[in-house]
Amino acid sequence: MSTPASGTRAATAAVPPVLAATVPLAAVEREGTVESVHLGTLAVRDAAGPVPGAGDPDVAFLPRSALKPVQAVAMVRAGLDLDGELLALACASHSGEPAHVDGVRRILAGAGLTGADLDNTPDLPLDDAAAAAVRAAGDGPSPLLQNCSGKHAAMLATCVAAGWPTAGYRDPGHPLQRAIAGTVAELTGVPVGVTTVDGCGAPLFGSTPAGLARAFAVLATAAPGSPEGRVAAAVRAHPWWVGGTGRAVTRLAGAVPGLIAKDGAEGVLAAALPDGRAFAATVLDGSARPLPVIARVVLERLGAGSGALDAATRTDVLGHGRPVGAVRALF
């Protein structure tokens, strides 16, 4: 039987660059036996700049919602007049709990708008209890309840503040999105190489893990009162508004004083300490499961370990409802 050499060569040539850029980041162990391994890429910075991480930190990737604090900086620069919990909500992938939804309404009302002006994808809340309450009330998915509604409300409020049309605010050619793309390139230090559509319908700008880590370091070390500093202060002070009850990103930020952190779909997490120590991780299989463990190990090596961090990032493997193993970092 002949060997399909040409087919093998074609398959090898088709391997995405991101696969070659990744290394094992974490293993799932059950009573000492490895069940699965998560590959990924990790970019790390100390207070002086980049330090060795894992894999190729300059590989192109999609930061997903981890980019929201950077997007919020662009909005504040353009005139968005929010601070505190509502600015944190503009950076959020919130759980859709009642206070989150009320906060979105407050952002819209401040700009003379309502939920009818939102153009993000309708959805139910991420929080199970909140979603059950919506169903019990006879309601269904809506843009207001979707986890990105804070960002979209802030985008609309920015358009009102800047004198831009609210219609078509999701279009990559809209002045708002052009301003966001420019800010992403500036703060990451990486040209936007790809623009696609995020799950919520907003433009999604590509970057690299190293670029995302750099952007978070810039935010974390920014002068108080600057757009970057205002966003960092809001995310730092209001982690519940960035995520929600029991969310991994909320627990992580609450466990490390001064940390700004934001997760993203498909296994993305970025975080930074006030002096610029920062990291950005992307998990190749898209799983968020290893991210708390990855965060704990990186923060420990950056000198920010603690018992609170250990407790907030513990990731057990269960057997019949009890811990029989754990997720363990490999890098």
TrEMBL record:
It comes from Pseudonocardia spirodelae. Pfam families: Asparaginase_II. It comes from the Bacteria. PANTHER family: L-ASPARAGINASE, PUTATIVE (AFU_ORTHOLOGUE AFUA_3G11890)-RELATED. Keywords: Signal. Residues 1-20 form the signal peptide. InterPro entries: Asparaginase_II. This is Asparaginase. The keyword Protease does not apply.
